[in-house]
Every structure is written in structure tokens, then in C-alpha cells.
């Protein structure tokens, strides 16, 4: 069953599907689609195969840090398929489907009885752009920017028919590629769709188990729509290797964000750890003005794709 929120709307996923069709017309043999709306994947055999391919795609193309623990397996992709629109870029060569890029657009409502621990602002509705990933070393460029264009244009249109909502994405504090991708996607959309849109850093969260950080602090950024583009003071996160790497990264972040003010943490639990979200008092840090220098803090922890066991997906 799909997310009840979308089922209540006449548009369902169609706005995203229309945006996919618009972008696809720029190419002869590359398709952008909402997986749930693409006729070719309504056949169960084709659907199972593409879900497995998406899982393998994440496994093989995510080359980030080993402590990043949220790579979806087949069951994870299947669960996303049942709940959220999945944006897929692919080309079909004879009967072979080659995935070029993918992202999932998740929707959450924070209520008194449940909040999303990674963005736990009470009574807030929000979309999270997750897992935008493109094929490594591909000759086809701008796939990631096109996915951002589709998603941001679609969400801009949803704003006219839905109650107010935020649009966020999260990135490991060392992951300059994700930060660059988000601001590049916003810039690409501004230029190609004449939208006033940009991203701002609004907070960060940490995960702790037994009072120890279990992964690097994670930045939370929010896209602003239909607001004048704002320039901010450039900020460079210049990290250094320390004995306790994650704690050292957090100390660095606090140092660079001291003048912006960090609100007291909001604590909740996810499936396995204590999540603490820290909102910035002054969230006027434009992503265009952020530079991240990992300085080796990301090395020695490279994630190696692994061979997964075959998982059968039932109807």
C-alpha cells in the first residue's frame, strides 16, 4: 500500500511523472520516470528485476564511508516502492536496462505521538530527498542535476495544492560531493526552470550508542522556494584527524558554527541508536558558500561493495 498521504491526493505521483516526461524529451534514448508510474515496470517480473537492480546499483555505486549504514538492500527498496515515489533514470539497450541514476522522495509528518528523529521539529510536514545517486564513471552527464530538477520542480508545484511543507536532504559532514550535488541541482533548476530556489544549512544530527558516536555527524539542509536568493558569509569546514574521529569532527563543526548559534539538542531514538538533532539559531548559511575540506578524515574507512544474498520479493 502506498503512503496514505499520496493516496488522498488526486495527483498521486503524477506531478513527478509529468516532470520526468518533460526532461526525458531532451534525450533520444534516456528515460526519466517515477518507477510506480512507468508502464514497463508494471509487469511483476520486470518490477522485481528493477528493484533488485536498484539495490545492486546502490551497493555498487555508493563509494562513501563504511560507517554510512543506510544503503538499501532489496527489502529496503521494495519497502520504499510501497511507500514513496522513486525517481529513476535509465536507458534500455535491447532488453537490457541500465540504471543511470535514482532517488527516493520520502514524506513525513511530525506529530505529538511520533517525530522523525533526524528532523524532529514538532508539527512539521516535510519531504526528504534521499539517496540521489548516479552511475559512476558514466559518459552521460547531468543525470543527478536532472533528478534534482525533476524533484524540485515537482515539489514546487505540490506547494500550490498542499499545506506548507519543508524540503530537506541530509549528508555526512565530510561528504562534499553530496553538498556540491545539492547546490548544483538547485542552481541547475534556477537556470533551467526560472525558479527562485536555493539550499541552506539548518542543522545537524548525531547518532550515539553506549554514549559513543557510531557515525560521523550529519548535516541537515533545507531547500527554500520562491524566496530571493541570499548570499551568506563563506564558511569552510576544515577537518583534522583526531584519536576519536567522530568526536573530533563534531568539535570542528561546533567551532565553525559557534557564531551561528546551536540550539539545545532534541533527542529521539531510531532503530538502533540515540539521535540528537541540533537546529541552528541562524540558518542563513547558503550551500553555495560552504566548502568542505575532509583532509583525510574520510580515508581508511572506504566502503567496499559487497555481494548480497539473493532475496525473494513476494507479491
Q: What's the helix and strand layout?
A:
Blueprint (H helix, E strand, L loop, with lengths): L3 H4 L6 H11 L6 E4 L9 H18 L12 H10 L2 E8 L2 E14 L15 E10 L8 H16 L7 E7 L3 H18 L3 E13 L2 E2 L4 E8 L9 E4 L6 H13 L8 E4 L4 E6 L5 E2 L3 E4 L22
Parallel strand pairs: 4-5, 9-13
Antiparallel strand pairs: 1-2, 2-3, 3-4, 5-8, 6-7, 6-8, 6-11, 6-12, 10-11
Helix pairs in contact: 2-5, 3-4, 5-6
Can you characterise this structure?
There is one protein chain. Strands 1, 2, 3, 4, 5, 6, 7, 8, 10, 11 and 12 form an 11-stranded mixed beta sheet that branches. A two-stranded parallel ribbon has the order 9-13. The chain has 7 helices and 13 strands. It has one domain (4-293): Gcn5-related N-acetyltransferase (GNAT) (Aminopeptidase, 3-Layer(aba) Sandwich), CATH 3.40.630. Strand 4 (125-134), helix 5 and strand 5 (166-172) form a beta-alpha-beta unit. It is globular, with a radius of gyration of 19 Å. Helices cover 29% and strands 27% of the residues. The longest helix has 18 residues, at 44-61. It has 315 residues and is an alpha+beta fold. It starts with a helix and ends in a 22-residue tail after the last strand.
Structural descriptors:
315 residues; alpha+beta; Aminopeptidase; eleven-stranded mixed sheet; two-stranded parallel ribbon; 27% strand; disordered N terminus
